[in-house]
Specification:
Length: 135
């Protein structure tokens, strides 16, 4: 018969586990720091596009700077969202509900990333974008 002490059974579990929570914390810290820099740049990009006609917006986002800033902001933001909802879900839901909620939050986050990437690529490759030059 094998006897396991409570300490041995709990070792490596919880907040002091081997690296999982520390890596998650650093991931959240890095993504929030990146968002601190990307948010003002994204606001300026969007503010410059407000009021432009459809063709001019496609031309504007076909340029590298607005497209890269928009893509980085939304990718990093959705990655931060996915990790943040994971913490929220782990704190408030149990068992089957937790698994379903985590899957749904991941699907939503990756769907937004895919939609943004598709929209930016479509604007960059549109024939209208090559004609319109926004100054």
């Amino acid at each position: 018969m094998r006897y396991i002490t409570p300490r041995k059974a709990a070792k490596g579990l919880g907040a002091a586990g081997p690296g999982a929570s520390t890596a998650h914390h650093w991931g959240m810290t890095v993504s929030s720091s990146a968002l601190l820099i990307l948010t003002p740049a994204f606001i300026l990009v969007i503010a410059s596009a407000i009021g432009l006609p459809h063709d001019a917006v496609a031309g504007y986002f076909s340029r590298p700077y607005p497209a890269i800033v928009t893509a980085l902001f939304l990718i990093v933001g959705m990655h931060h969202y996915i990790n943040g909802t994971r913490i929220l879900i782990d704190d408030y839901l149990d068992h089957a509900e937790r698994k379903v909620a985590i899957i749904l939050s991941h699907l939503f986050g990756w769907a937004v990333i895919a939609a943004v990437a598709y929209a930016l690529v479509r604007m960059a490759l549109s024939p209208v974008a090559a004609v319109v030059v926004v100054s």
